[in-house]
Design brief:
Layout: H1 12-32, H2 36-39, H3 68-71, E1 84-94, E2 98-105, E3 113-118, E4 121-128, E5 130-132, E6 137-138, E7 144-153, E8 159-166, E9 172-175, E10 181-186, E11 234-244, E12 247-255, E13 259-265, E14 270-276, E15 278-280, E16 286-289, E17 297-306, E18 312-319, E19 323-330, E20 333-340, E21 381-390, H4 391-402, E22 405-408, E23 415-424, H5 425-435, E24 438-443, E25 446-451, H6 452-478, E26 481-487, H7 493-500, E27 509-513, E28 518-524, H8 525-538, E29 544-570, E30 579-580, H9 581-585, E31 591-592, E32 615-616, E33 619-621, E34 628-635, E35 641-660, E36 663-667, E37 672-685, E38 691-708, E39 713-725, E40 729-731, E41 734-736, E42 739-751, E43 756-761, E44 769-772, E45 787-790, E46 796-809
Parallel strand pairs: 1-5, 11-15, 22-25
Antiparallel strand pairs: 1-2, 2-10, 3-4, 4-8, 6-7, 7-8, 9-10, 11-12, 12-20, 13-14, 14-18, 16-17, 17-18, 19-20, 21-23, 24-25, 26-28, 27-28, 29-30, 29-33, 29-35, 29-36, 29-46, 31-32, 34-35, 37-38, 38-39, 39-42, 40-41, 43-46, 44-45
Helix pairs in contact: 4-5
Length: 818
C-alpha cells in the first residue's frame, strides 16, 4: 500500500525569516529614503540650507535577497516629488525694530535660499521646487516697507521668491523646522525659535568610506575655533573676472584685514569664496553673466552673506565643469585662479574641503542657512513668431517687454526668423544675438549690442587696463617714499597743489612754502616724476601782447551862402524932394552909396537931378562875412532914376585830419586801455547856491583784452568809445557843453602781427536856411530879389578809423627749479 503523496511545504522558520526580512526592508525604506527634492537640492544654488537628515541605518540583509534600493531603481532614480504650494505670506508680529514673517506652505520647506541686499536694504528668500498659488503684495508693517512675492523661475526647477523691502539693514534669521516657514527680522532674532531645530548634518558623499560618514557636530574645543576677526572692519570694494584661454581669474579687491576660505560644490559645479570679517560696497554687489566669455565660469555672484554674529561676504562662481583652483592673497585683495579639467562621467563629486590661505586660521562653518548672491530681477516672458524680420525690430520689442534700454551699433543688422513661446526675455535676446554673431553687455539698465568680436575686444582691453592699474598700484605700494622740493616761478602755488593732489599716492603729501613759492613733496619717485611734468606744463610765464593802435580821425566841412541887397530912388519933378522906394515901406533904413555923376552928356550942362544923394535900401539880405560881392548900379541919363544892387556870396570848405599812434603792453587775459582827449569844464550850482566848476572827460578811449591761443593767435575783446563836446550853452549862473558819444564793442581773432580795422563811424549834417520878404520871396525867379539863401550846405563829415595790431612778445626761457 502506497503512502499518500502530499505537497511539500516550507518549514515555518523560513516563512518567519522571510516576513522578518520584508518588515525590516519596509522600515529601512521609510527611515532612510530621501525625497527626490532633497536629493536634487544640490542642483540649486550651493548656499541653500537643508534640514537635518537622520544618519543612515546599517542593517544586515541575507545574501541573495534584493535590497530596497535595488528594487527602486537606485538612489538616482527616485520618483520626483510634487512641488510645494506657497499659499500666502503675512506679518505675524511687528514692532519698531522687529518683525516675524510667516510663509504659508502645504508642507514643510526642505530647502531654501536667503540673502540680503544693501542698496536699498532688502531680504530675499527663494524656495526651490515650489509654485506660488497667487502672487501678491503685502503692505508695510514695522521695519518692513513692502513684501513682494512672485514665481521667480519655472525652468529647470520652479522657484518662488519672497522679497522683503526694509526701512534699514537689520539682522535676520530663517526658521524652516516646521510649517509654516518663519523669517525673523531685527530684535525678533533673539527669541529661541531655532532652539528646537535639530542640528544640521552634511550629506555624505556617494561611495564614501564608512569612516568618513558625517556625524552630528559636537562642540569643538576652544583651540579649534578660528581666530577672532580683527577689530578693524574689512571691505570688499570690487569683484572682477579675467578670462584667458581656458583659464580665468576672479579678482576680489579688499581693504583692511580679512580672513577667507574657499569651498567646492559638486553638483552643479561651483566654488564659494567666503570673506570673513568684511562688508561689501554697494557697487560691488553684482551678478556677472560671463557665459559668453572664454573660461570655465558661467556666472559670478557677490553679496553680503551675513552681518550677525560675524560679518561675511560670499562670492559664488557657477562653473561650466570641473576645475582646478588656486587662491592667493595679496596686499590688494584675493586672487582666485581656476582652470578647467576634463570631466569624468562616473567621478563622484568631491567632498567639501575648503583650503585656508597661507597659515591663517580656518573659520568654522556656521550651521545657519547660507544666503546666495543676489539674483537678477524676475525676467518678463514673451512669445513671438516672425519670419525674415529685421533684427533691430526684435530688439525694440525686447526692450519694450523687458523695460531695459537697448543701444545697437550701426553694424547690427540682418534678418531673423524666430518662433518663441513663453520664453524669458534675456534667454530670447541671448539666442537671437548669438545665432547672428552678435553679443551684448548689460550695464545697469542699458544693454549695448555689438558684434561679438567687438565686445570681446572691448572686454579684453578693459581687463588689460585694470590689470595695469592693479600692477601700478601694487608697485606704488611697495616703492619707498622720497622728498623733493619743486619751485614755482609763475603760477600760484596753492592752485598748483590742487592739481597735483589728484596724482599723488595715498601715502604722499604736498605742502607749500609761501615765502619761497616752493612745493615740498613727499611721494614715490614715479609720482614725483609725474608731478614734475605736470608742474612744468602749468608753471608757464603769462604771455604778453603789445597792442599797437593807430587812430585816424577825418573831419570835413563845406558851407555855401548867397545874399542880395538893392535899393531904388527917383527924382520928384514937381517938388523939392526926391521919390525914394524906401519911403513907401517905411522909415529910411540902410543906404547905398550914390553913383558918380554922369559925364559925357550931349548938352553942355547936365540936367538937374538926384545929385550925390545916397540910395536907400529896399531889400537888405546880404551874406554875413561874405568872401566877395558883386554890385550893379542902374540910372537914367538925366539922373532922375537910380537902381543900386549888390550880390554877396560865400563858400567855405575845410578838411581836418588827426592821427595818433599809441602803444601798450598787456598780459594775457588782462585789460589794457588807451585814452586820448581833453577834460571839458562846466558849471554846477550846489544846494547853497554856490557855483562850482567841474570837469568831464571828452576822450577817445580804446579798451583791449588780449588772449593768446594755443596756436599762437590773439583773441581780442575791443571796446572803442569816442566822446566829443558840442557847442557851448550859456545860461543864468553858468555854462555847459553837450557831449556826443560814439561807441563800438567787438570780439575778434587776429593772427600774430596782423592788423584789424575798426572804423567807418560817419556823421553827416546838412541844413538849409532862407531869409526872405513874405510873398515876394516866393515868386519864381524874381523871388531871388527878395530873399537870402544860406544853404547851409554845411555837410559835416566825421570818419573815425582805428587800426589795431597785436604782437606776442617772446621772452627767453630761463632755468627753473624743476
Amino acid at each position: 500500500m502506497m503512502a499518500p503523496v502530499t505537497a511539500s511545504q516550507p518549514p515555518r522558520w523560513a516563512i518567519g525569516f522571510l516576513v522578518g526580512v520584508l518588515t525590516v526592508s519596509w522600515v529601512v525604506m521609510r527611515t532612510v529614503s530621501v525625497p527626490a527634492a532633497r536629493a536634487g537640492e544640490l542642483e540649486f544654488v550651493p548656499e541653500w540650507s537643508a534640514p537635518a537628515i537622520p544618519p543612515a541605518l546599517s542593517i544586515g540583509i541575507p545574501f541573495g535577497l534584493p535590497t530596497p534600493s535595488a528594487q527602486a531603481g537606485g538612489a538616482g532614480e527616485q520618483p520626483s516629488v510634487a512641488p510645494i504650494q506657497v499659499t500666502g505670506v503675512e506679518v505675524a508680529e511687528a514692532g519698531p525694530k522687529s518683525a516675524t514673517i510667516v510663509i504659508k506652505t502645504d508642507r514643510a520647506v526642505e530647502s531654501y535660499e536667503s540673502f540680503a541686499l544693501q542698496d536699498p536694504p532688502r531680504l530675499v528668500v527663494d524656495i526651490p521646487n515650489a509654485v506660488h498659488a497667487a502672487p501678491k503684495t503685502v503692505p508695510a508693517q514695522g521695519p518692513i516697507t513692502e513684501i513682494r512675492t512672485s514665481q521667480y523661475k519655472n525652468q529647470p526647477v520652479k522657484v518662488v521668491r519672497i522679497v522683503l523691502d526694509l526701512a534699514s539693514a537689520l539682522p535676520y534669521q530663517v526658521q524652516a523646522t516646521a510649517v509654516p516657514l518663519r523669517v525673523l527680522i531685527g530684535e525678533a532674532t533673539g527669541t529661541p525659535l531655532m532652539a528646537q531645530a535639530p542640528k544640521p548634518e552634511e550629506l555624505p558623499a556617494k561611495e564614501a568610506p564608512p569612516e568618513t560618514l558625517p556625524q552630528a557636530p559636537a562642540p569643538s574645543p576652544e583651540p579649534a575655533m578660528p581666530a577672532p576677526a580683527p577689530a578693524a572692519e574689512g571691505r570688499v570694494q570690487s569683484v572682477d573676472y579675467l578670462p584667458r584661454d581656458g583659464k580665468a581669474e576672479i579678482l576680489v579687491r579688499t581693504t583692511g584685514p580679512v580672513i577667507f576660505n574657499v569651498s567646492e560644490v559638486g553638483t552643479p559645479p561651483g566654488l564659494i569664496l567666503e570673506v570673513v570679517g568684511a562688508v561689501i560696497d554697494p557697487q560691488a554687489t553684482k551678478v556677472l553673466d560671463v557665459r559668453q566669455l572664454a573660461g570655465p565660469v558661467l556666472r559670478i555672484r557677490a553679496a553680503q552673506h551675513r552681518l550677525e554674529p560675524e560679518k561675511a561676504v560670499r562670492i559664488v562662481a557657477d562653473l561650466k565643469g570641473q576645475v582646478r583652483h588656486d587662491v592667493v592673497q595679496t596686499p590688494e585683495g584675493i586672487r582666485l585662479a581656476v582652470e578647467g579639467v576634463p570631466s569624468v562621467a562616473a567621478a563622484p563629486p568631491a567632498p567639501p574641503a575648503p583650503p585656508t590661505p597661507r597659515d591663517e586660521p580656518k573659520p568654522e562653518k556656521k550651521p545657519t542657512p547660507a544666503p546666495a548672491a543676489p539674483a537678477a530681477p524676475t525676467p518678463a516672458r514673451l512669445s513671438m513668431d516672425f519670419k525674415d524680420v529685421d533684427i533691430n525690430n526684435l530688439l525694440r520689442i525686447i526692450a519694450e517687454v523687458s523695460g531695459q534700454n537697448i543701444v545697437a551699433g550701426e553694424d547690427v543688422k540682418g534678418k531673423v526668423t524666430v518662433r518663441l513661446v513663453d520664453v524669458p526675455w534675456d534667454v530670447a535676446l541671448d539666442n537671437i544675438l548669438r545665432i547672428n554673431g552678435f553679443g551684448y553687455v548689460h550695464e545697469e539698465n542699458i544693454i549695448r549690442v555689438a558684434k561679438a568680436d567687438t565686445i570681446r575686444r572691448d572686454e579684453d582691453q578693459r581687463r588689460k587696463d585694470q590689470l595695469e592699474r592693479i600692477r601700478l598700484e601694487k608697485d606704488a605700494a611697495l616703492e619707498p617714499l622720497i622728498t623733493e622740493i619743486l619751485r614755482v616761478s609763475y603760477a600760484d602755488p596753492k592752485k598748483v597743489v590742487e592739481s597735483l593732489n589728484k596724482v599723488k599716492s595715498r601715502d604722499g603729501s604736498i605742502s607749500v612754502d609761501d615765502r619761497t613759492a616752493s612745493l615740498l613733496i613727499t611721494d614715490t619717485e614715479n609720482n614725483i616724476a609725474k608731478m614734475r611734468t605736470i608742474l612744468k606744463e602749468l608753471d608757464q610765464a603769462t604771455p604778453q601782447v603789445m597792442i599797437e593802435g593807430r587812430i585816424v580821425s577825418v573831419v570835413a566841412r563845406h558851407t555855401r551862402a548867397l545874399g542880395i541887397t538893392w535899393g531904388f530912388q527917383a527924382a520928384n519933378t514937381t517938388g523939392s524932394n526926391a521919390f525914394r522906394l524906401s519911403d513907401v515901406f517905411g522909415a529910411a533904413g540902410p543906404t547905398l552909396a550914390a553913383p558918380p555923376a554922369p559925364t559925357g552928356f550931349v548938352s553942355a550942362a547936365p540936367p538937374a537931378g538926384l545929385g550925390a544923394a545916397t540910395i536907400p535900401v529896399a531889400v537888405n539880405l546880404p551874406v554875413a562875412g561874405p568872401a566877395g560881392a558883386f554890385g550893379l548900379i542902374l540910372g537914367s541919363v538925366s539922373d532922375q532914376l537910380r537902381l543900386n544892387m549888390q550880390i554877396s556870396a560865400l563858400e567855405d570848405q575845410s578838411l581836418a585830419r588827426t592821427l595818433s599812434t599809441p602803444r601798450v603792453v598787456a598780459l594775457d587775459n588782462q585789460e589794457a586801455e588807451i585814452k586820448q582827449g581833453e577834460e571839458v569844464p562846466f558849471t554846477t550850482v550846489d544846494s547853497s547856491g554856490r557855483t562850482t566848476i567841474t570837469f568831464k572827460e571828452a576822450v577817445l578811449s580804446l579798451k583791449v583784452t588780449p588772449h593768446v591761443t594755443a596756436d599762437q593767435r590773439v583773441s581780442l575783446k575791443v571796446k572803442a568809445t569816442d566822446d566829443t563836446r558840442g557847442e557851448r550853452i550859456d545860461f543864468a549862473g553858468g555854462f555847459a557843453f553837450p557831449f556826443n558819444r560814439n561807441e563800438a564793442t567787438s570780439s575778434i581773432l587776429v593772427d600774430n602781427g596782423a592788423t584789424v580795422v575798426i572804423g567807418g563811424v560817419r556823421k553827416r549834417t546838412e541844413s538849409v536856411a532862407e531869409t526872405k520878404v513874405p510873398f515876394l520871396g516866393d515868386i519864381p525867379i524874381l523871388g531871388w530879389l527878395f530873399k537870402r539863401r544860406t544853404e547851409n550846405v554845411e555837410p559835416q563829415t566825421l570818419e573815425l578809423l582805428i587800426f589795431i595790431t597785436p604782437r606776442i612778445l617772446e621772452e627767453p626761457r630761463q632755468a627753473r627749479g624743476y
